[in-house]
Amino acid sequence: MRIGLFLDSSLSTFGGAEKVYSAVVNYFKKKQVNFAFIKVYKTEEKIPPRDQWVEPYKENQVWFLENPWQNQKQLKNSPSESKVQHHINQKFLKELDIAIIVPYKLIIPIQSYLKQLGSNAKIVAWPQNSFSLYLISENRIKHITKQILKPLIKPLLCKKLFIGAKSTDLILSISSGISREIKKYAPNSNIITVYNPVLQSNYESITPIEKPSIPIFGYVGRIQDPVKNLRFMFKGLSLLNFKWKLKIIGTGPDEEMLKEYAKQLKIDDKLTG
Question: Of 250 and 148, which is predicted with more confidence?
Answer without folding.
Answer: 250
